[in-house]
Amino acid sequence: MDEKNIIEDVTSSEYKYGFTTEIETDVIPIGLNEDVVRIISAKKNEPDWMLDFRLKAYRYWITQKMPSWANLSLPEIDYQAISYYAAPRSTMPQSIDDVDPEVIKTFDKLGIPLHERDKLLGIAVDAVMDSVSVKTTYKESLAELGIIFCSFSEAVTNYPDLVKKYLGSVVPYTDNFFAALNCAVFSDGSFVYIPKGVRCPMELSTYFRINAANTGQFERTLIVAEEDSYVSYLEGCTAPMRDENQLHAAIVEIVILDRAEVKYSTVQNWYPGDKNGVGGIYNFVTKRAICKGDSAKVCWTQVETGSAITWKYPSCILKGDNSIGEFYSVAVTNNYQQADTGAKMIHLGKNTRSRIVSKGISAGKSQNSYRGMVKVQKGAENARNFSQCDSLLLSDRCGAHTFPYIEVNNDTAIVEHEATTSKISEDQIFYCNQRGINTEDAVGLIVNGFAKEVLNKLPMEFAVEAQKLLQISLEGSVG
Amino acid sequence: MLVIKDLHANVNGKEILSGINLTVNPGEIHAIMGPNGSGKSTLSAVLAGNPVFEVTKGEVYFQGKNLLEMAPEDRAREGVFLSFQYPVEIPGVSMVNFMRTAINEHRKYNNLEPISASDFLKLMREKKEIVELDTKLTNRSVNEGFSGGEKKRNEIFQMAMLNPKLSILDETDSGLDIDALRIVANGVNQLKNSDNASIVITHYQRLLEYIVPDFVHILYKGRIVKTAGKELALILEEKGYDWIKQEIEE
């Protein structure tokens, strides 16, 4: 089989999570205006302050234009053609028995059991379908430690003071176009609060599932880690295969106080579109953590294999002295996927350290860009950053690009940037073949070797899944 | 074990092999010698199934099966091993992971369960000794940062791990100093038994002092032009290839 044929075989493999669930869904009519914002707020029985927040954001959003600086060929998005709220018909369940069996089946199919007795060992899950959270597991046992893990809507009702204090404090609604949109119409998401001195004993995770057609998903996550606390959090995402594009614009805000540590891992596998580039999710996400306290630590790890378009730059604001920000990323693009992703490290405090390890893998006719910013402010004495961006090309029709921005305003800072680009060679493949390893497994082996440093940062339970995911995403895509 | 009949092969439209005939039986060692560009490495690559080369004519049977119809990985699983002249570096893939994957593919092909972690480690330890390969090297990525000699020893180590029926050593002696040569040859000799066979491709007689062939073939312009016992290598060493060329041209 020659090189070209091998490329032609690209992703004949089906997207595994492309099924739809037949449930009654409550969808509001398409379009966006102040009334829609009010309807969403009313559907969630929100207090006035929450509605005010949304309206302010909406009024700001209508004055903004979609950003065009990314290395993406962005189609015109008709924001009036999208429905901004969809929910499985049954309302907030009190127990697992109230959850629509079809919904439970869906999450079972995705490998996310909602019954605590079928527990995913040591992991508490908040399952979000379309616009609402359908079930959060282990809530009670976590509560005994003072940990709050619930849907965002519940947090607004039950912990208004905490939400009021931190909502928008890391990503203000004026931050960017998609952030403003999210603030106006966000539906649900997860809320995590880890009290002082508590180490969360299990992985917390949110599983996002888009189901309804012609809808957007706008969730937001807020994590607050008090002094000396620790939590590891994981999010996973999938969506059905549909011919039209669907919009996903999320916000994640993380606040970390003195000596606390938050690990945030993402396995993003939204539907990427078919091999001709039809359909797929537009993924525009704003993720930011602030190390507010001294010696606070945040670590972002992401494995991005899905979405037709990804626009995402997890950031760390290192405000506390001696605080640490880390970013580990594997971004895979195949067929006609486009990704413009990277990290931002903002050094404000003294002796702050940051590390960026980005591994981009491009196949098919895809475009994969790393865009990262390292900024050292005046007061950030002895700040250190190390960035490494490696690209692996699997075909001769894909692209890998690197756009590093470095701004240093303090002479004592040390900032390093390394970048490499490589290609899987036919010689490497043949060498593996000669040892009895077929081409697909050889690519998997090489790609996983390339991404190892990042995959090792994932919680153990997910590292294996992520490895398989990489292999599936690239099935047949050698050239 | 291996029967090659009238094998012709091209690369980029140019004929390199022009009718090779060769039979290899179990327990035999065949040396293939010849001047530069005579097609020695092409023959090994074609047998292993390198897609760069196009077979235009001829047949190759390995243990009664049509080798040319098999994918390269299946040839390997059937027991054909090629020790590369230029072993390839695969960054990020550890030798351990690479070898375990390879062994398990071979086992799967033979309907065997994957090897257990402890058996695998035991096997590694055992086989490393055959070529005196340092543990530091097996912990590294495949061939990455290996010296020329280490790469060649690593090839023989992999051969020992996979226990092939037919091993093809493509200029395994090139770039080796005398000590490394002895280690490599020693490894090959230890692995030899009455059920397996080797084809040793070499430029110089030197390697054949250590690996004693049953037959020596001279390849010239894509054909085997002379076959004899091990003494032929000595004649070549003494007289070079010119007399063969003359004999052919006449």
Secondary structure layout plus pairing:
The complex is a heterodimer of chains A (479) and B (250).
Chain A: H1 3-8, E1 25-27, H2 34-43, H3 48-61, E2 86-88, H4 101-109, E3 123-129, E4 132-136, H5 139-143, E5 148-151, H6 152-158, H7 160-166, H8 177-185, E6 190-194, E7 203-209, E8 220-225, E9 230-238, E10 245-256, E11 261-268, E12 280-291, E13 297-304, E14 309-312, E15 315-318, E16 324-333, E17 338-341, E18 344-347, E19 353-362, E20 367-376, E21 384-393, E22 399-408, E23 414-423, H9 426-434, H10 439-455, H11 460-473
Parallel strand pairs in A: 3-7, 6-8, 7-9, 8-10, 9-11, 10-12, 11-13, 12-14, 12-15, 13-16, 14-17, 15-18, 16-19, 17-20, 18-20, 19-21, 20-22, 21-23
Antiparallel strand pairs in A: 1-2, 3-4, 5-6
Chain B: E1 2-11, E2 14-24, E3 29-33, H1 40-48, E4 54-62, E5 65-66, H2 72-78, E6 80-83, E7 90-94, H3 95-109, H4 117-130, H5 135-138, E8 141-142, H6 148-162, E9 166-170, H7 178-191, E10 197-201, H8 206-210, E11 215-220, E12 223-228, H9 231-239, H10 242-249
Helix pairs in contact in B: 2-3, 4-6, 6-7
Please summarize what this structure is.
The complex is a heterodimer of chains A (479) and B (250). Chain A is α/β, with parallel strands linked by helices. Chain A is built from 11 helices and 23 strands.
Q: How does this model look, in words?
A:
The complex is a heterodimer of chains A (479) and B (250). With 479 residues, chain A is α/β, with parallel strands linked by helices. Chain A has one domain (17-439). Chain A has eleven helices and 23 strands. In chain A, the strands form three sheets. In chain A, strands 4-3-7-9-11-13-16-19-21-23 form a ten-stranded mixed sheet, covered by helices on one side. Chain B is built from ten helices and twelve strands. The model of chain B has no long low-confidence stretch (mean pLDDT 92). Chain B is an alpha/beta fold and 250 residues long. Chain B has one domain (2-249): Rossmann fold (3-Layer(aba) Sandwich), CATH 3.40.50. The longest helix of chain B has 15 residues, at 95-109. The A-B interface holds A 1-2, 422, 425-428, 430-439, 441, 445-446, 448-452 and B 48-52, 71-73, 75-77, 81-82, 84, 87-94, 97-98, 101-102, 105-106, 109, 141-142, 158, 162.
